[in-house]
Amino acid sequence: MKSCFSDRHTDQSVALFLGGKLSWLSCCKGYSSSSYRPVSCRSPQCALANKPVISTRELCNGTAKNACSIYINNPVTRSVGKGELISDLLNVTSNPDSHETPVTSPRRCSFGSASTAGNILNRLAKTSKGSSSVLSLLPQHAVSFRFSRIFALDLHEPVTNEKTSETRGKIYFGGGPYLHYMSDVEDFVDRVLTYAPLLINPKGKEEYFVDLRSMKVHGITVPINRKLLSINKKTGVGGTKIDIRIPYTTMETSIYKAFTKTYAEWVERYNANSSTSLNISMVTPVAPFTTSFNSSTVPMVNMFHRTETPSVSFIFPKSVWNIVLFDLVRVSDGVDCVGFVDGGSKPTTSIVIGARQIGFLQFDISGSKLGFGEPYIHEFMQRTSSLLVTWFISFFNKIISSFDPKFKKKLDKIFLERASHT
Predict the structure, then answer these.
(1) In the chain, fewer beta carbons within 10 Å around the N or the C end?
(2) Model confidence over 65-101: pLDDT tens digits?
C-alpha cells in the first residue's frame, strides 16, 4: 500500500494489515516534513494509542518536550520497538467510480514513528517503510473525511504487468459504489454483495471473525467437528477469521484432512460420471499443498458456467460465500494445487481465510457485517485471454524470427489488428 504523507506529497510504501492499534513508519534515520507535529503525551490520542495504560504520569515519564512515547509492533514477527506518536498530513485519492465521496485536500492523521533501528521491518515487504493498520486508519478517516465506518478490499484486480502477471489490489474507505466493467454487458455496474455478521472474539477484538457453520466442496458437505468452528469465550480459541497477511486459507489439521478428502471424493465422482475420456489426474503434491492435479485434466471451462456447483462454499447462518475459480493455484507448468494449507493440530484459530480466496470484501464496522462478492467470470476470462494473447505473440515472434524482416513486420501488423478486434 502506498500512502502520501506530508505537505511535500512524499509516497511511503507500507505493509497493509487489517488489525492492529496503530499505523507506523520507520523513522530511525529521521523524518523530514514541515507539516509534521508531535502528539502530546497528555492528549486523548496518546492515551488511546497506549491502551490499557491510562495514567498521564506514565505516558509522559521520560519523554522530551511532552512527546507521546509509544511501542511499535511488527504484526508479522511480533517484535516491538520504541517510538513516538506524531501527526502529519495524509493524502487520500478519491474513488474515481464515485462522485459522492470527493476528497479535495489532505487531512491530518496520527501514526507512530519508530525511532529505533534493528529488526522492526523484518519480514515485511522489501519496499515497506512501516505498517498500515486499517483498524487505526478507518476511525481517523471517518472523522476527517466524514466517511461511514466502512472499508473494502479488492485483492483480485486485473493484471497490471503482462510480463510478470502482477496484480494490484485496492482499498476503499467510506463505502461504494464499487463500479466494475462487465464485458458481457459492455458497461460499468456496481458490485452485488452478500452479507454475513462479523463476530467479536473476546481475546482478539482487533481481528475480524465470521460465523462459519460448514463448508462444501463442489456441493459435497465437508464433515467437520462443529466445536472447532465456535469461539471459546474464555480462551478465544477456535472460530474463523479473515487475515490478508497469509496467502492461502489455513485449516486446523482435522478440518484440513476432511476438506482434502472431500476434494478427492469429488474427483472420483467426476471421473466416474464423466461423459468424456478425459479424467482428472492427481500428481505428486507440491509443498505447502497436499492435493495437486495435472493442469491439462482439470475441467476449468466448466467453472465458467454459473449452472455448475461452486468449487468451495463457506456456509453462514443466512448466506453462502462461494469461492469460485480461486480454490486452485497454478504452482508450475502443468500442475494445479488446491490452494488451502494445513494450519496445525492446535492453532489459535481453526480456519483463517487468506488473501488468495478473499477476492472482494466489504467490512461494515458500524453495522457489524461482512459483505462479499464472487469474482466476475467474464472478467476472469478476459484477464486469462489477455495473458494468452501476450504469450502467443511472443511465441509467434520466435517462430518467424528467422523470416525476412519486412515479411515479419507485415505478419505482426496483421496479427495485432486481428487481436484488437477479438
Answers:
(1) C
(2) 678 888 887 777 777 877 888 888 877 766 655 555 5
Q: Are 134 and 17 in contact (CB under 8 A)?
A: yes
Looking at 276-376, list the stretches that DSSP marks H as alpha helix, in order from N- to C-terminal side. 355-358
95-126 core/surface letters (b: 16 or more CB in 10 A; e: else): beebeebebeebeebbbbbbbeeeebbeebee
Output the pTM of the full model: 0.77
> Which range, of 132-136, 178-182, 302-306, 416-420, averages the lowest pLDDT?
302-306
Contact at 8 Å (CB) between 68 and 45?
Answer: yes
What is the rounded distance in angstroms from the CA atom of residue 73 to the CA atom of residue 79? 6
Beta bridge partners of 332: 335
Cα angle vertex 204, ends 202, 208, to 5°?
Answer: 105
Question: Would you state the cell numbers that stand for residue 177, as one nine-digit string?
Answer: 459504489
Q: What is the DSSP string of 90-121?
A: EE----TT-SSS---S-EEEEEEEE---SSTT
Q: How far apart are CA 197 and CA 321, in angstroms?
A: 12
Task: Spell out where 333-406 has E strands.
Answer: 335-338, 340-342, 351-353, 360-364, 369-373
Q: Pseudo-torsion of CA 347, 350, 355, 359, nearest 10°? A: 180
